[in-house]
Amino acid sequence: MQEMTQQIRESAKRLLEQGQVDCVLGYRKGTVPMQERPFFAYTPEDADQLVWTRFCVNNLANFLIGRQDRIAVVAQGCVSRNIVGLIQEKQLTREQVYVLGVHSPGMVDRGKVQEHFPNRVIHSVEEDGEELVVSGADFSERIKVRDVKRNNCYTCTHRNAVIHDELIGEQGKETGGGNMDKVAAPWEKLSPEERWERLEETFKDCIRCYACRDVCPLCYCNQCFVDENQPQWCGKTVEETDVLTFHLLRAFHCAGRCTDCGACESACPVGIKMRMLTSKLEKDIRELYDYSPGLDLESTPPLSVYRPEDPEPFASG
Amino acid sequence: MQDKILDKSELDAFLERLGKEHDVHAPVQNGGSVEWAAVDSSRDLVWDFTNTGVSPKRYIFPQTECMMRFRNRSDDPEGMVMKEEPGLTRKRALLNIRPCDVKAFRVLDSVYCQDEKTNDVYWRDKREKTLYLGLACKSPCPTCFCTSVRCGPHHEEGLDVLLVDLGEQLLLRPVSDKGQELVSHLSDAPQEAVQQAAKQKEDAEAAIQSRVDLENIMARSVLELYEAPMWDREHESCLNCGVCTYVCPTCHCFDIQDETQGEHGRRVRNWDTCMSWLFTYHTSGHNPRGSKKDRYRQRFMHKFKYMPQKFDVIGCVGCGRCTSRCPVNIDVTEVVRGMNEQE
């Protein structure tokens, strides 16, 4: 990963020095363990702060929305797919972004690491190949990265950037090895009552901070439906009706657009696993429309177009 | 007041005594994290934890709180009828609450109970019916900086009793009259236990690595800080989500909504966040904090400049939750250092 960091810095410096872009968007080392920070480098000196680690859990495509400048961006598979999505949805132009394509080795879920060290204070986590060295005031232990990856990284289907202007490092293994259908499968087995219970259980701790929405590159509406007040579609309380209205409607808005980047789960301060909703949507869109979001600039997202011959299996009874 | 000692094996009797008049709540293990819940047995209690993910402020300031109910019938000679909501029906004890989280209540008293007219009944009702049994902090997180903001791992302000975990035993230090009454039946703590507690305090304070200095912030004018160039770049990665404000023990802004159905309705107060554009959006369409930069700056200025200036309190207790939970690693200590170092 250190070589990748070096290459990102070199490319960023070159692009900035030659004036090819106004800014390079990447990650900077965070101030707490396992948490890198999205970072905008405007000068070659800034570029020295860029890093690439297994703790880059934000989706940088989110930060491209509304930018008017020419911007280079460090993008692994999911991020590049969201860039494609934003171009399809006319939030960005292809010419405006310079994609520094990177291969994602799968990112670390810091909650899982903490679970390995219950109630112990982690002071630092360093990468060492396929292991992490986790240290506190009075301990230092190694754990395997493969045991603490984010759930979405296990089911990843595109670890390499799907578009790029420049490759950083080499392309690598394309999939995470897991099966998304298995994540979605429980829904299909549950009765409506059980589904409702599962929903209630999943979202019961939500504090309505909207981090899941605000970290998501799909959520760029000028005014989110939960922020509208004439009419007010959704109440402001943390009571179940309002919480579930928000999460269900948001999930539907993501159908056919979600790349399973996992930023929402990484951002949630109370550990809600919202992929339990989006996994089923992803599977449905794939099976019904033979479509996976963000793979190809020429295609049109199925829910953005009307076709008389669209499948409607739900209507056949 | 005399320090007392309690064997952990006798905790259930202590809890039973406490439970006679109080609903007892404490931090308990909840999967990978520790969160607040009702407890009725000492088995539920945890002793080696840093702090709860979400602060206990919701016990005094619930995220959603009904303020009153109303009925509005056109054919009713009484017209609109408004009905008060009952307050807390039973007293409550917050056991093993961290000193920083209790200090936060003191900070918020200065906002909610300023004078006769600004004296929030909802806040006061729960505040007065709650007993605060603090647990001194043994292993501060790397994100903690309580000692820089007039607080500390053994800080006693606002507590009824301070508990210090000595392994098999607990030292109980009564801080208020209520606390004194609660522990008066226990044996006096031996000198070694008092010394052990003092040593623990020293160690815990020394373990806090993160320090911030606020001197220059206090000395500089509001405008000087407000216009500091640091804000131009700092906000760029901020998502303007509400995580920092909702996990924070001292953020206290709310939004009041009337919810109606037919002729019935209720008035509800919900947490709100200054990070949201909607927070300051006027009916006219004007937004005095219309940009991300404005909102980002507001949260830090409020805590570290406006509150000290207006109430002589720092609007932060150094718990570090905002830093550890921020999805994009905005670190409050970094921001405050920036504010303090501005030329």
Short description, anyone?
Chain A is of the alpha/beta class. Chain A has helices at 2-17, 44-47, 77-88, 110-116, 151-154, 180-189, 192-203, 211-214, 240-254, 263-267, 275-289; strands at 23-32, 35-41, 50-51, 71-75, 97-101, 124-128, 131-136, 139-144, 166-167. In chain A, strands 1, 2, 3, 4, 5 and 9 form a six-stranded mixed beta sheet that branches.
Fold blueprint:
The complex is a heterodimer of chains A (317) and B (343).
Chain A: H1 2-17, E1 23-32, E2 35-41, H2 44-47, E3 50-51, E4 71-75, H3 77-88, E5 97-101, H4 110-116, E6 124-128, E7 131-136, E8 139-144, H5 151-154, E9 166-167, H6 180-189, H7 192-203, H8 211-214, H9 240-254, H10 263-267, H11 275-289
Parallel strand pairs in A: 1-4, 4-5, 5-9
Antiparallel strand pairs in A: 1-2, 1-3, 6-7, 7-8
Helix pairs in contact in A: 6-11
Chain B: E1 4-7, H1 11-19, E2 22-30, E3 33-38, E4 64-72, E5 80-84, E6 91-97, H2 99-112, H3 121-128, E7 130-135, E8 161-165, E9 169-174, H4 177-183, E10 187-188, H5 191-207, H6 215-219, H7 222-226, H8 231-234, H9 243-247, E11 254-261, E12 264-271, H10 292-311, H11 321-325, H12 332-341
Parallel strand pairs in B: 2-6, 6-7, 7-8
Antiparallel strand pairs in B: 1-9, 1-10, 2-3, 4-5, 4-12, 8-9, 11-12
Structure notes:
- The complex is a heterodimer of chains A (317) and B (343).
- By secondary structure, chain A is an alpha/beta fold.
- Chain A has 2 domains: 2-109 and 149-312, no CATH class; 110-148, no CATH class.
- Chain A has 11 helices and 9 strands.
- In chain A, the strands form 2 sheets. In chain A, strands 1, 2, 3, 4, 5 and 9 form a 6-stranded mixed beta sheet that branches. A 3-stranded antiparallel beta sheet of chain A has the order 6-7-8, with no helix packed on it.
- In chain A, α3 links the parallel β4 (71-75) and β5.
- The longest helix of chain A is centred in the first third of the chain and has 16 residues, at 2-17.
- Chain A is globular and about 55 Å long.
- Chain B is globular, with a radius of gyration of 22 Å.
- The longest helix of chain B is centred in the last third of the chain and has 20 residues, at 292-311.
- In chain B, β11 (254-261) and β12 form a beta hairpin.
- Chain B is of the alpha+beta class and 343 residues long.
- In chain B, strands 3-2-6-7-8-9-1-10 form an 8-stranded mixed beta sheet.
- Chain B has helices at 11-19, 99-112, 121-128, 177-183, 191-207, 215-219, 222-226, 231-234, 243-247, 292-311, 321-325, 332-341, and strands at 4-7, 22-30, 33-38, 64-72, 80-84, 91-97, 130-135, 161-165, 169-174, 187-188, 254-261, 264-271.
- At the A-B interface, β1, β2, α4, α8 and α10 of A face α9, β11, β12 and α11 of B.
